[in-house]
Amino acid sequence: MHIPDGLMDPLVAAAGWIIALSALAVITRRLDRRMDDRRLPLMALLAAGVFVAQMINFPVGGGTSGHLVGAALAAILLGPAAGMAVMMVILAIQCLLFGDGGITALGLNFLNMGVIGCLAGYYVFRAFPVRYRNAGIFAASWLAVFLGAAACAAELAASSIISGGDFGIAPFIAFPSMMIFYAIIGVGEAIITTGILAFLAHVAPGMLDMPGARSTSGSNDKDEVAPDA
Hints:
CATH topology: Arp2/3 complex 21 kDa subunit ARPC3
CATH class: Mainly Alpha
Radius of gyration: 17 Å
Order of helices and strands: HHEEHHHHH
Strand content: under 5%
């Protein structure tokens, strides 16, 4: 889903940067007000873990592979604002040091994987009752990937239409290819994320009592910790 330089119409890429910078301004203010000593080390650890996990690819078929995106995982553990901050750090390092995603397209990549991924992952997860926590994690993780891919397909299609085919990918190619493959990749993301959080709930339940997650100390919604956004 990482968009490289030179693929998007400059207007679409600029719009991505405007949205990304606006989102960063909002989450920076939220984190300044609500940061605590527990969350900062976890943010650093999670950023490193997701960064490494994204390097491990699993086959999807047709010569295509997928990897953990990690937006839902970060948002569920940390809340959407801190999750977006973690994703921006990961995407910036990948872009600047490893050439994974372009500099001009960094705003769009952050929008798709950071903003949409974290918001979808967090709020879908929160919509499920505590007793269905694993189902909520699975659904949230899948939707975070699928909706990010849908946004990417829309950006590719818009670039093609605006530029008369000079940039982007034609809509009749962009939407089917992105939707089909990322619907499958989303299942892999959901399985991995659910497995990670189920393991954490067993060995370190305190991590699931962070501001982004539902409390494990009780069995009903009254035990939830207040979200950060």
